[in-house]
Amino acid sequence: MKAIISERINGGRFKMSDEIVALMQTFVQDSSWKAEAGGILIGRHILDTLDIVVDSITVPMPGDCRGRYWFYRHRRGHQQVMDTAWRKSCGTCTYLGEWHTHPQPIPTPSFIDVHGWIRKLNLGTFVGESVFFVIVGLQALGVWEGDKRGRRISHIGEFNLIRKDIHGASG
Ligand SMILES: [Zn+2]
Predict the structure, then answer these.
(1) Is residue 36 among the annotated active site residues?
(2) Contact in structure between 99 and 42 (CB atoms under 8 Å)
(3) CATH 3.40.140.10 at 4-15+30-160, yes or no
(4) Which phi and psi angles does 60 have, rounded to 5°?
(5) pLDDT digits 0-9 by tens, 15-74
(6) Of 36, 98, 145, 158, which is the active-site residue?
(7) 67 CA to centre of ligand 1 in angstroms
(8) In Å, how far are 112, 117, 126 from 23, measured between CA atoms?
(9) What is the reported pTM?
(10) Are 35 and 45 in contact (CB under 8 A)?
């Protein structure tokens, strides 16, 4: 698996290393007993550019509520990891968004996902103008960008998890 690079809606790129994608892939729901998994995206807004880099993610923890078709994070556990990353990086590493899995070949956000994403945009409790959402399906990984000002969500990339030569797709 290669790194993921998506073109952002207003310029700049959204990047995720191959290690992070590989870690997400360990939670792919490729058997019927595997529940949804997820966590938060932690990373940096690169100075003097519009680039965003995901440096780490949280993974399911005790206290999360997991089913085949739902995933609810236990807020405190994930928040603690975020706070530690923020402190250790002297405030450079911040909350960038969220990720979760879907038992679908090509992931599409559910009504509940979109509702939750819009709510996040309305609350605006994140640094910068955008928040990112990743859904890991069985065959592909999708990236969405939520724009705080425009209050809209755009699909900014879809990456094949099976093929070796992955490419970003915009629109
Ligand atoms: Zn979902």
Answers:
(1) yes
(2) no
(3) yes
(4) -50, 140
(5) 999 999 999 999 999 999 899 999 999 999 998 999 999 999 999 998 899 998 888 888
(6) 36
(7) 11
(8) 25, 23, 24
(9) 0.90
(10) no
